Amino acid sequence: MAKIASLNILIDGSSPAANDYLAELSGVVIENIQKNTLSYKLKNQELSGDPVSGTVECRRFTNATSANYGSARTAGKGAAVKAKPVTVAIDQDKEIVEELEAKDVRLYSVDDVLNRRANNHVLTVATALDRAFFAEANTNATAVNVYGITDVADILEKIIQECENTHNSFVDGVPRDMMSLVLSTEYYGKIRNHLDKCERSNVDTGVEEFYVWHGVETNSSTRLPVGCDILLMVKGAVAQPVMMEQYVAEKIPLSEAVGVELFYHYGTKAVTPDLIFGADFTQPNEGN
Predict the structure, then answer these.
(1) Is 129 helix (H, G, I), strand (E, B) or coil?
(2) 150 Rama class: left (phi>0) / alpha (psi -120 to 50) / beta
(3) Model pTM greater than 0.90?
(4) Closest by CA position to 144, among listed 162, 131, 170, 127
(5) What's the half-sphere exposure (Cβ side, CA atoms, 13 Å) at 185?
(6) Contact, 191 vs 152, CB < 8 A?
(7) Burial letters for 6-29: b for 16+ Cβ neighbours within 10 Å, e otherwise?
(8) Residue 134, C-beta contacts closer than 8 angstroms, at least 6 positions apart
(9) Which residues, at least 6 apart from 43, have a Cβ–Cβ distance to it below 8 Å?
(10) Which domain of life is it from (predicted)?
């Protein structure tokens, strides 16, 4: 990555070194945000449209149906392919604007200070995106009644089977390898404790993660909404288009400070809410 000798060079719009540095720094930030967000691995990637317009679209196609041989010939046409469009608005506009004082960068190089701040910006943006993603998923999740079930294995299995047996115009059952479990750290710990007590567990309980539970990818997250311990979703159930602008540096008037600015925009929407599930620990079964 290019080296920046001074704040004055950083704000020189005609400086190739400054422009290259800011472009490279932006690229590194975007790459690291993708690595640090669980939502990036789970979100819907099949979107169409230009994000600059403010919206993108996801199209969900209905299942094909079998007809008796000769039906198309008799009708003179095949069955129409039906699709349900879901519009995702990019309606969240965010910024990180920080001022660097000349005296504060004298002990370090400019690019060293900016690299350190960029690492913090990665965490800030990643947290915002994950929290928005899981909040949307939680809001649209079908709450599976697990009232009275005390065994954590039975609770998770009931939720998994609820998703597995989904049948509607778009879905005819869901394979477990298409699902992902996201657990709070507390509930993730309960599963680890459960595995520790299993005499013949095929999971190495000495490592931090166990990755798969009953054939379902499993993750722990500190970014779930308050009160949410379990989310199960099919990968792609939530869309979250993100637009990151390139870093910009500019002189702050009447000071020795330079403003470093990062702007980003995103939107979050559940595109297949019927494939998102949570747990309801409080609702009694009917008749109890």
Answers:
(1) helix
(2) alpha
(3) no
(4) 162
(5) 5
(6) yes
(7) ebebbbbeebeebeebbeebbeeb
(8) 39, 182, 221, 223, 224, 225, 228, 231
(9) 133, 236, 238, 239, 240
(10) Bacteria
DSSP letter at 55?
E
Examine the pLDDT at 54 and tell me if it is beyond 60.
Answer: yes
More confident residue, 180 or 197: 180
| Token representation of residue 230 | 């379990």
Digit-coded pLDDT (tens) for 183-224 = 999 998 888 877 766 655 554 544 445 567 788 999 999 999
Task: Please choose, from the candidates 4, 7, 2, 6, the residue with its C-alpha nearest in 3D space to the C-alpha of residue 250.
Answer: 7
CATH superfamily of 142-238+273-280: hypothetical protein PF0899 domain (3.30.2320.10)
Q: Does residue 131 sit in helix, strand or coil?
A: helix
